[in-house]
User: What shape does this take?
Amino acid sequence: MSFQSLGLVAEIHRAVSEKGYTTPTPIQQKAIPLIMQGRDIMGGAQTGTGKTAGFTLPMLHRIAVENKSANSHRAIRALVLTPTRELAAQVADSVNTYGRYLPIRSAVVHGGVKIQPQVQKLRRGVDVLVATPGRLLDHVQQKTVDLSRVDMLILDEADRMLDMGFINDMRKIIAQLPKKKQTLLFSATFSAEIKKLANDLLDSPELVEVARHNTAAESVAQSVFLVDKPRKRALLSFLVGSNNWKQVLVFARTKRGADRLAKQLATDGISADAIHGDKSQGARTRALARFKSGDVRVLVATDIAARGIDISSLPHVINYELPNQAEDYVHRIGRTGRAGKDGEAISLVCADEYVDLQGIERLIKRELPRATVEGYEPLETVATKPVKKPQQRGRKPSWNGGKPGQQRRGRKPGNATGKHSSARQRSH
Assistant: This one.
C-alpha cells in the first residue's frame, strides 16, 4: 500500500511526499481509511510507529473536503487533547507540516507560556486546536474558546492523561462538545480505566492495534546492568564517556533527582540538561533543542516531561532509575528504535529495585539479560539488602547471580569520567 492509494487530497499527498514518505506504517494503513470514513477508533500502537500522522493526515483530509466552500467565520472543527506540552507541540508540528498546502489554520494551547497570545490567535479563528487539558479548561472558563462546532475529537496518549489525573478536566471539556462527533482514542496501554473511558465516549469503535500492547519495539536492544545504588552515577558517566556516546536520553524518577544528576554529569565533564514539569516552557524547549542539535550529550528527563520527545534516530535510552509503574518502562524505551531504526535501552538496576524489575519483566513477558561492568560489580544482593516483598520461607535468591548471601568482590572502580582500565506534575 502507498500513500497515494489512500485517497488523500493532493495537497496532503504533496506534503507527505516532500517529507520523503511513500509507504504508510502498519498503524497508518489500518487507521487512515477508517478515520476517513468517519468511524470512531480505539487505537493501540507502540510509540514511534507513526501514530501521530495516522490521525493527523485523515483529520486534515476530512476538514479539507468539508471546507471546500469558503467560510467567512472559522470554527474549531478538530480538537486534539494531549497530556504534555511537548506532545502538544509535536502534534502541532505534524499538523503544520502536512497541512502546509491547505487553507487550514491551527493553534496549540498549553501552560508554561502567557495565555494572551493564545487568546488572540483563537479570536482570529482556527480549524484545528491542539491542547493540554488544564490550559484548554482555562480558556473554556474565560470563554475565550468556542468548542460548540467540534466534529472530531482526538485523545492522544489517553492512558497518560488518566495517570496524570486529568480525567475530571477531560470530562469538563468533553461536556462542551457536541454529542454527535467522531472520536479517536489512542493509548499505549488498555487498562480497565481506558476501556471504561472508551465505552463512555466512543460509538461502536473499530479496534486498531499493530502490536501486542505493553510490548517494546523489536528494534530496541534491552539490557540490565547490575550496580550498587551509590555507584550508579559513576557507571553512567563511564558508559557515556568510554563509549563516546553523543546523544543519550536518561530517565530519573523525580524532578529534583533529574536536576541533581544533570549537574553531577557536568562535573564529570559530560554536557547535560534536565527537563521536567517544574521547568518553564521556555527552559524545556531550549533544553530539548540543545539536545536535538547535539550541543548537549545527555538529557535527563522525568516520565511526564519525556512524552512528546520525538527524535527519529535517538540511539540510547538509559533508565537511571526504574519507573514506579511498569508500563512507563515501555514508554521510556520507546523513545529509541523509532521509525525502524535500531536503538539501545539500558537499565541501571540496584538491589532495592529488584521487585520493580520483576514487574517490568512480567509486563513485557520476557526476562531481560543481566550484565555487570568490570569495576562496577554490585556488592549488595537481595539477601544482603531486603526488598519489599512477601516473606518466603527458605533461602532468599541472589539478585546478581552469586550464591545466596554471597557478596561479589569487584576490582577498585575507576573514576566517573571513563578513565578506567576497561571498558504528579500537572502540565497544563
Observations:
- The chain has 15 helices and 14 strands.
- Confidence is low (pLDDT under 50) at residues 382-399, 401-428.
